[in-house]
Amino acid sequence: MFGSRVLDTAIGLALVLLLMSILSSTLREALEGWLRSRPRYLLRGILELLDPNDPALTAELYSHPLISGLYRGTFAEGTDATGRDAPVGSKLPSYIPPELFARALLDLTMRGRGPGALSTTAPMTADAIRGGVASLHNPTVARIVLLALDAGSNTVDGCVGELAKWYDRAMERVTGWYRRESQVVLFSIGFFTAIGLNVSFLRIAEALYNNESLRSVAMAEATRLTDATTAADLAAMTTPPPPAAAPMAAQAAGTSARGATTPPATTSPDPARRAELRKRLAESRARLDSLGLPIGWSDADVQVPIASNAGVLRFIGWLLTGVLVSFGAPFWFDVLSKFVSIRTTVKPPARATAADDTKGAERGSAAQRATTPAAGGATIADPIGHSGQPAGAPLAVGTAPPIVTLAPFASNEWAHGADPHEGVI
Question: For 128, what's the count of Cα atoms within 13 Å in the CB-facing half-sphere?
């Protein structure tokens, strides 16, 4: 088992990285509110899903009444001139429910494409869908619709379910795109925040390792933080949702009889709970700062030349901070929780207690009583017969054991020389 000094240092580092990750995630979400990158990724995913060579089909899907009700303005206003990308601040939706996507696509298949297209007012049936696939003018998507009908037992609801599954599988790839981009953004924010606040991983590690009071306070704060915060609350507070559709079961609860939808329920805590968590985490960091962690800029730090050894080590510390912050707050909360759990099982060697001393005294008294002659004429046995009696014969109480006199030891000389003791054994 490794020493508690190393473990306490690791706990302090994990705590600092958790706080830095929360700060970076908050800045990331604020930046996302301005950039709105999730709608751009969703548009790219749907364009790749339907047909990259037929952007008009994607535009008509977004313009369908079931989809256009999810965003403000028109599709043309939310995209560039090519209709293939969403600019910064686009008002396009950041998610589209799978069921709405499937029903809008089937409506385009049966009743035709194009603004105001309404080739038939007949009810939507499996036969009507099969007869209208040619109106899509897109063999790739038409084949997907026919396969969905076959897999859905040739029913409309079954076809909707199969198309929704196809859409969900595609959104998993879109989610991967977004998460990779978010990790790069988190690294950038974490790196520049580390520079702005002068948070060097190497410098903090050295301070924690050499300062027992800092380690003790970090351990106390980490324990309080992990006890008062759950991983679900922290993830909801710091992890932005990917540009993927909400589950169909969640959407069912928000779909009215007229087909209008409401945003899906989220797992995020209420605003009061979120504010409480952020306040608690901010207080934890403020307490760490007040105890002397080398965070922030001093006059001595400003005067350190960039090209010096200290300057290079400081830059490496900033870089390490940025890389580790990119792992995200949920990751560091999980690491911190495990470290704290391990630390609580590491106990110092047990010290003798008063009860132990009492038990030892009782054992010593019992041993003494065993060797003390009993009262009332009792006898004890002579184990080896030193009294002249046979071995095991009883001795009278009060009779001291006889003193055994050994015969004098005769040395055996096996060598002769000038030294009189040579060879004497």
Answer: 14
Distance CA 320, CA 191 (A): 8
Distance of alpha carbon 360 from the chain centroid: 49
Residue matched to tokens 């385009």: 108
The token pair that represents 332 in the structure block:
């560091």
Q: Is 28 exposed, middle or buried (0-12, 13-18, 19+ CB in 10 A)?
A: buried
Give pairs for 286-293: CB < 8 Å, separation 24+. 287/217, 287/221, 288/15, 288/16, 288/19, 288/217, 288/218, 288/221, 291/213, 291/214, 291/217, 292/207, 292/211, 292/214, 293/16, 293/204, 293/207, 293/208, 293/214
CA atoms within 13 A on the CB side of 306: 2
Report the alpha-carbon distance of residue 84 to residue 71 in Å, rounded.
Answer: 17
Helices then strands, counting H and E runs in the chain, come out as: 17, 2
SS3 state of residue 312:
helix
- pLDDT tens digits, residue range 50-87? 888 888 888 888 988 899 888 888 888 888 777 777 77
pLDDT of residue 188: 93
Distance in angstroms (rounded) separating the CA atoms of residues 74 and 91: 9
